[in-house]
């Protein structure tokens, strides 16, 4: 594959291998054309090439971080990088000798991105956790779910990815822009609890003006409204409605052949009853028939597609929303750019697959590379 030509071409990023939000951040940067090098732990084993789309688009070097020579190798890579991202618990990188002070001493312009759940400080900083815990503490999880039911974890999209990896990518890019002005690097402390809280900004505003209550499943956007909901069809498949604006709701009433007098939109007292009635309406036809009637209209309608269905939907096909890399179907890079379009430069790499290549591109001589191999500091 060709090297990606996205808007971040020329930016060098070091990624310390991890799971979830860190790799997602690295994927976003690589998709946009950054040269991202993943630093994997050297174990001596050579595994099969991974298929995880989160690992696409970068090279891998395997380093033994327990050896002094391995740490020194990484610090030499740091000297030639624009940014670094890591996702360990606070203090781990410092104990390795690769904390911000050590790295910025080698490269004062370095942007040092840190991804954690709880942040670098605070009473929870050293506690273990996962997405579900971070969004719970942020006040995001409690409001997700239906009336009378427990909160429903929205996969791990809100903490790990939206409030985590994407926030870290935004922070790294903001710091890189500032670095161009000041000539100085800095540390970016991205915490999933902070990011999940930030994603709730609109709901804090709605709460303060009385448009949002803490009774789950009774509000406009949390399945309380009959016109913002998913409904089962005759074939067991589902469709989604988002007919919030009056003109869109009127189109729903028209195309579903409802009696406007029996379906007042904003009478909250009748929302549960109207939801039951609308559910009965959608159960009368299969999903394909409802798509024929409503898809592309101003109802604000879409079929609820499975992952196996989404890549073949005509709109996604036309937009090339999904691509195939190394035989694996996956989402394409986003967003789109008119002049510097991003692309996936390579499939996921085996651990350490590009060790010699990476070292040479950072200025290591052939003799130095061979010595590091003999010392098993680098795989």
Commentary on this structure:
With 379 residues, the protein is of the alpha/beta class. The chain is 36% helix and 14% strand. It is built from 14 helices and 11 strands. A 6-stranded parallel sheet has the order 3-2-1-4-5-6, with helices on both faces. β7 and β8 (238-242) form a beta hairpin. α5 (131-137) packs across α6, α5 crosses α7 and α6 (157-182) crosses α7 (192-199). The longest helix has 26 residues, at 157-182. The model has no long low-confidence stretch (mean pLDDT 96).
Strand content: 5-15%
Counted beta strands:
11
Distance between the termini: 24 Å
- Give me the side-by-side strand order of the main sheet: 3-2-1-4-5-6
Topology:
Elements: E1 12-16, H1 21-31, E2 35-41, E3 59-63, H2 68-79, E4 83-86, H3 92-96, H4 100-106, E5 111-116, H5 131-137, H6 157-182, E6 186-191, H7 192-199, H8 201-208, E7 228-232, E8 238-242, H9 246-255, H10 271-282, H11 287-294, E9 301-303, H12 314-319, E10 322-325, E11 328-331, H13 355-361, H14 366-374
Parallel strand pairs: 1-2, 1-4, 2-3, 4-5, 5-6
Antiparallel strand pairs: 7-8, 8-9, 10-11
